[in-house]
Amino acid sequence: METSPLRWLLPVAVMAALVIGWEAIVDLNDLPPYILPSPAQVVETLIADHAVLLQSMLVTLRTTALALTFAVAGGVALALIFASARIVEFSLFPIAVILQVTPVIAIAPLMLIYLSTDTAVLVCAWIVAFFPVLANTTLGLNSVDPNLRDLFRLAGASRWQTLVQLRLPTALPYFLGGLRIAGGLALIGAVVGEIAAGSAGQGSGLAFRIVESAYRLNIPRMFAALLLISLAGILIYAVLSLISWLALRRWHESALANG
Amino acid sequence: METSPLRWLLPVAVMAALVIGWEAIVDLNDLPPYILPSPAQVVETLIADHAVLLQSMLVTLRTTALALTFAVAGGVALALIFASARIVEFSLFPIAVILQVTPVIAIAPLMLIYLSTDTAVLVCAWIVAFFPVLANTTLGLNSVDPNLRDLFRLAGASRWQTLVQLRLPTALPYFLGGLRIAGGLALIGAVVGEIAAGSAGQGSGLAFRIVESAYRLNIPRMFAALLLISLAGILIYAVLSLISWLALRRWHESALANG
Amino acid sequence: APAARAADKVTFGTNWVAQAEHGGFYQAVVDGTYAKYGLDVTIVPGGPQANNRLLLPVGKIDFYMGANMLQAFSSVAEEIPTEVVAAMFQKDPQVLIAHPDVKTFEDLKTRTLFISKEGLASYYQWLVADYGFSESQVKPYTFNAAPFLADENSAMQGYITSEPLAVEKQGGFKPKLFLLADEGFDTYSTTIETRTELVKENPDLVQRFVDASIIGWYNYLYGDNTKANELIKKDNPEMTDEMIAFSIAKMKEYGIVDSGDTRTMGIGAMTDAKMKSFFDKMVAAKVVDGGIDYKKSYTLQFVNKGVGKDLAK
Amino acid sequence: MNAAIQKPATREPAARMSAPLVSLDGVGKRFANTVTALEGLDMQVRQGEFLSLLGPSGCGKSTALRLIAGLSEPSAGTIEWNGEQAARRSIGFVFQEPTLMPWASVFGNVHLPLKLAGVGRRQAEPAIAEALEMVGLSSFRDAYPRELSGGMKMRVSIARALVTRPRLLLMDEPFAALDEITRFKLNNDLLEVWRRLGCTIVFVTHSVFESVFLSTRILVFRARPGRVSAELSIDPDQPRDEAYRTSPEYVGLCRETSLALARAMDAQ
Amino acid sequence: MNAAIQKPATREPAARMSAPLVSLDGVGKRFANTVTALEGLDMQVRQGEFLSLLGPSGCGKSTALRLIAGLSEPSAGTIEWNGEQAARRSIGFVFQEPTLMPWASVFGNVHLPLKLAGVGRRQAEPAIAEALEMVGLSSFRDAYPRELSGGMKMRVSIARALVTRPRLLLMDEPFAALDEITRFKLNNDLLEVWRRLGCTIVFVTHSVFESVFLSTRILVFRARPGRVSAELSIDPDQPRDEAYRTSPEYVGLCRETSLALARAMDAQ
Ligand SMILES: Nc1ncnc2c1ncn2[C@@H]1O[C@H](COP(=O)(O)OP(=O)(O)OP(=O)(O)O)[C@@H](O)[C@H]1O
Ligand SMILES: Nc1ncnc2c1ncn2[C@@H]1O[C@H](COP(=O)(O)OP(=O)(O)OP(=O)(O)O)[C@@H](O)[C@H]1O
Ligand SMILES: [Mg+2]
Ligand SMILES: [Mg+2]
């Protein structure tokens, strides 16, 4: 199936059907563009305003990439700390949960007092994205085959060796699952962060374009910005899926051809 | 370790240390309450305003519970559809990703045109929460032991039987991991939904209290509301962890005592 | 004139939670002015997000409280069939709030400014064009004054009628206030917008709503507003008497509602001259496109009739 | 030395007469990593016989069993079913690894094939109890797989394969993890089942003694690439009891089989 | 019948003389599910001996091995190390299941214990190659576990246990999944290793023949609760070659052992 053209054609067909359905809804209900613009109008706007939109997209993508990097680093680091002992996990997980559920919108002003705008946006995006990495990696680190664990114990493996050579590989499929969730979250985290704490004006990200367009009731442009976010999301997901597949294809069921 | 009092004492001690650290920061830097209120002030406000805050919390918790329920239902249902064939997964996953990365803040005003406020808030919270359930369950459904799969094939199991009796149990630990992530997300989803689409006034949730308090510079009350959200998050996580443990303790490594 | 027929049901959406800045409308509800004009009005309070705005063109609400004329211009640009039929505020209450050491408006150019995204997309562009402010000095304002209070070297946006009180109480100082309207940002505010279709097909209904609202505002400012305030507090339990008193005092002090043209034409007054002046400024500031037909954004059909002028004190 | 198929002329076993159930013709199996597990494999499974596959580790016995079961597709050659078509639908498979569902109890695991066939818990109870009795695990019906010893897991797997009374039983070293006494007992039980049900059994084993004791025919495989290197037939009517185990005939057959195996290994 | 320990008076094997390495005294093991795997187990492992554990499936052999290795704690009794303390730190364990890391190649899996001891890939190469050569898997060094047959996986596990040249080797049915010829070869190789390194081996098997061929001492276990039911000693100086396999002495010992096993099973 890997080589079948269907693998690429069908998703494209589904997307096409979606766009056609969207167009049909707009046409049949005769919706004005300020309620729901037609796909054609959105694409037109995208082309017309591509300079400013693409520049904003780059800003947002940069934040996303950074946030994802830190989410991975922070999530895995925390998971490793939690993995040192169940008691540590019990003690510190509540703090991670607090971080996860704190609405960034609410604490952004506080962050703005002490952090630069860019850093504040990044912290917002990070807060949104790190938890799935942490939770899934922790789950994976705790799912080690007990026989292999015994083997490592017998071989006199240090905590560190057991971690790096046994628990981390075991956690890999779980971690990669968390990463795929975190990819999208880092993107909306970046958008929400921009809304909550982001600088505005010329050099700003897609969030500002959305707010600005909404304020000006330029809904086609707002949708163009949303479209870019969707495309970025799909791209991020595809890249992360590819990474997963490359990392697991030799050994994990989820990545094998006939899965 | 299950029975050791440490298991409960240590997390409490960590929390206490956190609160003391917070108090110390406020005292040492002589921070005014409008920047960072001391824990004592927050608790005072919580007690003084408990009537209105608890009522708001109930509203938010109701939304959270509903959103989580729908996130589980929707995430699992989608995962099951995806599981029917890899090609379906490839075709439909982009749509799920689009849903995940669409900033609810941006589309909430549009939803309000066609949906009641309550429904719109719920949809926002759902959008935020469903993806981890979907992604993790899909991963789990694809991680079936190939030998067991063969066994089912030989026994002439129908697709449905294989799904229910083989793939779903295999996916259970992954699903429960996704559920723990989704619990917190449903909560912030509810908060963000309230901010994005929520009505103000009498019957509104914690998000409104936060925005309102921030606007009035009643920061102690804002923190009291944030504290309630944190407590709710920890509670949700604890309940979901308990459910996980109950479901897996007989057979999955991650839930076994010496994990 | 009171009619025997059943009152027309109309819905009016505001753009923020209930507060004294909406007082006139609440007044008309509680003192029976709307009823007298054959209207059964439901007020739908807004929130931090301006959700009510889109509900107007789709017909979920009949009248909407617009913040300023810029939004009305956008509607024309986007071909949204709505227009402004009256302006309750002669001046936009938008203010820049600064620490006491700031002497002149120009001094703000060296300060960090906390401006909301909407503000940045609107009046701030004019500040850039007319006064030479820059975007790089802006940090986002999220309707929380703490960052401003924490940073001596900053200023923030606000409504003259609300934020200054919070700043006074929490910061313990009387802030310097610069009303943008007095610096040249001469838009009307707290407008009443409705669908063009309603103007065409039911001008009588529109006229009745405008007239009753104007009378409501006179009574709120100059009459007994206790009941209106009760209703505001009911819609927004956070509201305090102190806040309301402060807001009313500021509205009067700065002539937000009743000043200039209203002395002759009554509250709600609008003129082509002032519209043109504001439009030209915004075009110069590149906030709006000079090509749009701004005259389509409003109609003078329902105002400048001196309705209720006798109620002023 | 050459690996030509050996056909002891001295025997004309009745099993040879029976109709073929499955025929493998020139079957080859290459894996994605280019390992050729089987090449040019010609073999038949005959209706009602007890066929043993013997051969060195890694020669493709498990692969052949999976091909017969239809669990994987040959990359060359054909596999044809000519006999009783019902057998194709009623296959019991004992995998080389226990392959138990970790989330189900012993009872649940043995119940599985019946459950999949629509037989409820209550109804299946006697059959399950009987199967567990046969493998000596009656007292462990509520235990979970991780609480069982290696041999016990394998016995659960055997019970699961027998509980449906399949027409074709494919067993991949089912008794390797069992002590000799349990093994002997299960050998006898298996023969009893085979006779009673009249089913066909394909049995992979490493024990020459076991294969000679149980089977009506033995195929010896050689490795790299895997194919049949020798064939031995044994009179199906021969009673398989303790006396047979010590009979000179048995000893002779064992020696013959051992030699064939040794030759198959030398051929590599 | 009673399960008193049998001590054949006719033998006085040299192994008996050697110092005990580990002593288990009155050891019991109960699991959380209240299964009593072992109760009152008294046994010793002696310095340099080749000790076989024989017994019915589920009698606690694997549990005993894990207790000796220190992988689980007895719930009653004591385990004492009196001999060479180095052995305690240098244990090779072949689990009953292959227990390979699915993400590592055959080479990587065999490398593991050396890597954990700080020996790099380059340095470990010759030892790994030798171990793979011994189990006949040289050409599969880059394959992944899921690409191996059952017997091949087990051989990787054996190679991994041997590669460190441990002082104490605990093997849980290592050869059960192997054909007889490979098994015989590995029997000889293992004896060779044992002699060359002078290590101590505790070997769980189900094959009476294998145990008699390999060991200097055999402990027969009985089940429920698991404990030692008989002990047999074999002259360690006896050469273990093909001649021995057919010697009347060997056959006699096998019969004796089989009887002890049968008695142990009857005792249940
Ligand atoms: N999934 C797979 N991918 C690649 N190679 C495989 C796969 N399965 C088996 N092989 C290879 O095919 C050959 C035959 O394997 P098979 O499992 O059939 O052997 P076997 O005769 O059952 O051996 P054993 O007695 O050790 O179980 C082996 O060389 C093995 O490496
Ligand atoms: N983790 C466990 N939890 C509960 N019971 C267990 C566990 N491990 C083993 N047992 C029980 O302990 C007993 C002995 O098991 P053990 O694995 O030691 O047997 P064994 O002698 O190795 O058998 P086999 O020859 O079948 O491998 C069995 O009855 C088994 O059910
Ligand atoms: Mg095999
Ligand atoms: Mg065992």
Automatic annotation (TrEMBL), chains A, B:
GO cellular component, one term: plasma membrane
Main location (coarse class): membrane
Superkingdom of the organism of origin: Bacteria
Record-annotated ABC transmembrane type-1 domain positions: 53-244
Location of the protein in the cell: Cell membrane
SUPFAM superfamilies: MetI-like
GO biological process: transmembrane transport
Coiled coil: none
Transmembrane parts of this sequence: 6-26, 65-85, 91-113, 120-141, 181-201, 222-248
Keyword annotations: Cell membrane, Membrane, Transmembrane, Transmembrane helix, Transport
Membrane topology of the entry: Multi-pass membrane protein
InterPro entries, per database record: MetI-like, MetI-like_sf
Record-stated family: Belongs to the binding-protein-dependent transport system permease family.
Protein name: ABC transporter permease
Organism in which the protein naturally occurs: Ancylobacter mangrovi
